[in-house]
Amino acid sequence: MSSTRKNNDDPWSSSSDEDDDSDDENVELDAETPFYSICTYCNSDAPKFDTLALALEYDVTNYGFDLLGSGALVSSNDEDDFFEGAIVLINKCRQFVKDNQVKFSGTELGQELNNYLKGHKVDDDGDAQYYKPVLDDDSMLMCIDELCELKRQTEQESQADTSAAGNNKSDPESDDKMEKLQAKISMLEEQLSRAKGYIAALANDDDDDDNSMSDDSRSGDDGDKKQASSAKQTNKKPDNDTYYFSSYSHTGIHETMLRDTVRTAAYEEAILSNADSLFRDKVVLDIGCGTGVLSLFCAKAGAKQVIAVDNSDIIKQAREIVELNGYSHVVTCVRGKCEDLIANNALPLNGKTVDIIVSEWMGYALFFETMLPSVMVARDALMTPETGSMFPNVAKIFIEGCNETERLDYWNDVHGLNMAPMKERMVSELTQDAHVEIVSDENIVTDRKEIITFDLNTCKDADLDFEVPFDLHLRDDDKSRNELQIHSLVISFDIDFAVPNTKSVQFSTGCQSTPTHWKQTQLWFDPVHNCPVLNREAGDSMKGVFRMKRNVKNHRAIDMSVVWEVGREAGSGWERISDGVLKRSLIA
């Protein structure tokens, strides 16, 4: 079905600019955020602990309160409930201590806390308020995965004791249970990420409303207070950084990236093959270093100094990995948000500039998660003029058309059964947002067209929100089908390490190349109501304008829009056959 677009219609739903995001971040230089025990965190001289286990043990020894042994903490086997339940329980305990620290002390406080938790249920209606952190920057909340592991160890020890007491016979099902638990590790990590998302969503609400009010509003009636509170909430900017950095704090995401041999091998080859021409005796800044793999490649290539920056607690392992591989004299690991480290002169540069900025900042569709602006801040502030370079230094975005008739028609005959309602459901799901999937080259029916190129040494922040024209033609290598529907537009990118006078290295995330962890990003048309159709014999092609911009509410998400039309060259010029507007988003 075709649609008619009036010339004065605005195909873009909104043109409002993104709010300036300048959220404060804690900046740390070779230092870790301490843990506070449940029962002492309110004290002015509260002891600080290097590990979660030490903080929990302190409560057991000095207050008789055992969070791990508490029946209120969900079993580690219940992965669907553990993470949310642990967040609620920790905040509920901290609030109780905050309210009762003067009234009770020592083991009495611990006993009262134990009594208080006897009626605790994870699904209490009032639990929503306890997703809000009671303690600012609570390390315990950011290590729920570690808490789950400690809980699991406690349960295993308890089972072992029970088994020993029962004629010292082992549980025949224990090995099977452990195997199942190991198989669910990835599921637990996913639950952790979701739980941390809950924390991040409320991170800006960590102050009581009364504390944000002026003295005048405090002296007013309840209506005035509510009005002041409402105004505060309206003016607050969302925290879209906390969940982002937290998501890089667990192993799975780093393993996925390192196992992406296209990505990792390209960086390795680009760095090591240019050791003499680019890296030897140079100062290198690695932004978003993760496990430190790129920093170590640079050190192996002969860099004089490498500064590895990351704002997640994976920096702890990066330091250990650097030392383990014998490069601690070259690589310095710094924790913090890059912009804040620069603003506070917290990088160990002693006034020097950097020769090379290495970073793996790319996200789905190139710009998802919006890390590049942070790298550009460092580029503009620290990179040596004229001779310095970003590495990689070129990025390109591509678009192509996809036909997935087999996938859509599958539901017409499933073992002899018509399941057409499932096709309708699938189409409804596919057209909600952009989808990240590996798209087979066999399903690509148009040419792959480059739509924009970024010189990473010179591009500006404003360039990252763009709109560009495109045109697509049916591929020449498959002429078996004359008329083809375009079910989706596929977005991918290529990366070039192409500094002048060096060996050039490139990798692609296109459908024609070896799949990467970035996969491809699909923007689905509605194949039922308005799906473009190209006729080969008639010479049809698709023209349009592609637009990508950062989401106004969450700058780490991206919104994509396509104004398209299908037509052909006729005697009187371009003849339009059908047109439409496609809008999809990648939500963070």
From TrEMBL:
Q: Protein name, please?
A: type I protein arginine methyltransferase
Stretches for region Disordered: 1-26, 154-179, 203-243
Q: Where is the composition biased (Basic and acidic residues)?
A: 170-179, 215-227
E.C. numbers: 2.1.1.319
GO terms (molecular function) for this protein are: histone methyltransferase activity; protein-arginine omega-N asymmetric methyltransferase activity
Q: Which UniProt keywords apply?
A: Methyltransferase, S-adenosyl-L-methionine, Transferase
Entry annotated with the keyword Methyltransferase: yes
Q: Which domain of life is it from?
A: Eukaryota
Catalytic reaction list = L-arginyl-[protein] + 2 S-adenosyl-L-methionine = N(omega),N(omega)-dimethyl-L-arginyl-[protein] + 2 S-adenosyl-L-homocysteine + 2 H(+); L-arginyl-[protein] + S-adenosyl-L-methionine = N(omega)-methyl-L-arginyl-[protein] + S-adenosyl-L-homocysteine + H(+)
Q: Does the keyword Methyltransferase apply?
A: yes
Compositionally biased spans, kind Acidic residues: 16-26, 204-213
InterPro entries for this protein: Arg_MeTrfase, PRMT_dom, SAM-dependent_MTases_sf, Znf_C2H2_sf
**Could you provide one GO biological process annotation from this protein's UniProt record?**
methylation
Q: Which Pfam families match?
A: PrmA, PRMT_C
- Residue limits of the Protein arginine N-methyltransferase domain? 395-566
| A GO cellular component entry from the record | nucleus
Polar residues biased stretches: 156-169
